[in-house]
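Example (one chain per record):
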Amino acid sequence: MVKQVIIYSTPACMYCKMAKEWFEKNKIQYLEYDLSSDSVKREEVFKKTGQMAVPVIDIEDEIVIGFDKPKLSKLLDI
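Predicted structure:
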């Protein structure tokens, strides 16, 4: 089963870029929201996490804050 992966990021975020490159390397499809230009999604992320850190990665309602490779690997069965 393919898991839905959403990444909330900003263009200036180095860890966001690293996470997206890692997803691509591992052939993980993801949906991306740019929090620098999407105030609705920015508010949504703040309500989910209580903070404004990026990247925020949502895998089937499991929230990962930051580029936590071990946790992402476990959630995605990689």
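Caption: The mean pLDDT is 95.
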